[in-house]
Amino acid sequence: MAKQVADIFTEGKVCPQSGESRMVGVIMEENVKISIVGMQESADGDAVEMITTGQYKEKDGKLYLSYIDNLLDTENPIKTLIKTDGDLVSIIRYGQKNTHLLFEKGVSHIVPYETPFGYMEVISHTQDVSLTPFEGGFDLKIDYQIELNRSDLGRNQLHVVAVPLKKEESI
Predict the structure, then answer these.
(1) Does pTM surpass 0.85?
(2) Nearest CA-CA partner of 8 in 82, 156, 17, 147
(3) Strand partners, 165
(4) Nearest 5°: phi and psi at 155?
(5) In what order do the strands lie in the sheet with 151-164?
């Protein structure tokens, strides 16, 4: 049975599942170097990799990682927040279109996906989530399938590593 998120998030809203406020408008100094590698098996098999800097925070047993993604569109950067809460990983992207994907091993989640033509239904089927936290960062691997309007888009893998940024280091 899939869990459903009732609302797409916009600035200043509260999460409908947990009732928590999002980290909105919190300005923190960049303190981590982030490597993000994504691969979609149904595509040409090439991995997409991005290296950037961002902010890492641990609070109340939850891990938060935020960064700006301008890999695909330099004119309209997307603020991305990755939040881990036990076995649940949320990836929330704020930009011209907002998305909120949920990943939990063995669980399917249904979420609305905003496009220029309206909302579509996205279902994430998570095969595995592996999170290894360490001092000042973490190593996160997610293996999942995605359906868009009931069409299988294939298997995906996401690998995110956040390591403490050295004082003299920058991207």
Answers:
(1) no
(2) 17
(3) none
(4) -85, 140
(5) 3-4, 108-115, 118-134, 137-148, 151-164, 32-40, 47-59, 62-69, 78-85, 88-94, 99-104
Coil, helix or strand at residue 143: strand
Question: Exposed/middle/buried for 22, CB within 10 Å: 0-12, 13-18, 19+?
Answer: buried
What gap in Å lies between CA 26 and CA 153, rounded to an integer?
A: 35
Pair of tokens at residue 165:
């940024």
**Closest to 96 in 3D by CA, of 70, 125, 132:** 70
Residue 24 has pLDDT above 60, yes or no: no
Q: What is the pLDDT of residues 7-19, one digit of tens each?
A: 333 344 445 444 5
Q: Quick one: which of 9, 171, 168, 1 has its CA closest to 101?
A: 9
**C-alpha span between 59 and 54 (Å, rounded):** 16
* Per-residue confidence (pLDDT) for residue 16, from 0 to 100: 46
Cα separation, 127 vs 98, whole angstroms? 24
Cα separation, 110 vs 98, in Å, equals 15
- Which tokens sit at 34? 């982030």
Centroid of chain to Cα 125: 15
